[in-house]
Amino acid sequence: MAGLLLTFVNFPKDSYITVEGKQNADRFFIIRQGKVRISKEVEVVEEEGGNILGPGDFFGVVSTMSSHSHIETAQALTDITLISVAKDQYPQLIQNNTQVAMKIILLFSRRMRYLDEALTRLTLKNTAEADPSHLFKVGEYYAKQSQYNQAYYAYHQYIKYCPRGQNVNMARERMMKIAPYARAVKLEYKPDEFNRNYPKDSMIFSEGEPGDELYIIQKGSVKIAKIVDNNEVLLAVLKSGDIFGEMALLEAKPRAASAVAYEDCQVLAVNRANFERMIGTQPQIIARLTTLLSDRIWFIYKQLANTLISDPLGRMYDALLIQLEKNRINFNTSQSYIFDFGPRELVNMVGLTQSDGALVLRKMMENKKIQILKDKVYTADVSEVSKQTEYYRKMQKIEKARRESAMK
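RESULT FIELD:
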């Protein structure tokens, strides 16, 4: 790692290196010698690969690269020697050692999929992994919603990837029927067409479709969504500079969600061969991808912790606070804030049915500082969201302690 001045730090056995909840993570660590235990206050799912790390493993990357608070506590199980890497050193570390970059990115991609599946099981009560036959269901859903661009695209991909599928004839009939209304459809691009333009409401890819490209948004915005129990669940709205579609590229698995142009947009498509070249030649883009993956993993950990709050109103306040943290809004002030989603999406976020969610929303609206404005959730005072969340989290801890003492 010539030209990169890395710091070696030693910690004696039993010492704490990072502490969960501590703000301003500015460096991560690679273990050179010894063993480290990783733990979380709220352990919803067992860490894939276990919680004990050894030489060559790293920790603190998620919080450091996403610039969020620490999501885990790291404690030395033996005397240890660590390599300390400051956030601004990461692009240089990649350039000098592409293996480290690939290890981090592949591990993050696996962790993302693993956590995403756990969250889907807990909140959406859905465990089926999408495969190409699922494309027909996606087409059916969008056709019923009169969203013909998305429907036409999904039917087309179903026929392409399941030429002997049981619904192929039906998919062909549907396509003929909706063709006059499917104006903004982009079905195929040549492999060497890397700069692509998508009109608003056209599908970039569908859940269930095989994929071997990731995308970098140059202009416009992209909606990431998933069909669950015959409902479209909005997962994210991504903007210029964001990267998406990386999990299918890195793991050669079907797309876990759909990407639709939220407005006219321009994207840069990156295939496997180009991606491997970029690791050595464009460290800034790889650093950006690591930051985005870190951001998503941080967000999923917070959502998993949210599932443990038993009071649904508490879960809703917590979901709003997570969004404020994610968007780096200082929630200790009394400023107002409009969230970029409405009541329906908020209900989906906390895993409630729309009818149950409507009752909880009504209760939430009794708080005069929370309103719905133009179908968006609005708070007149962000510190109120923090205060309410803190109360429900405290109640949850008391309830947990009571249960544990009753079991003794």
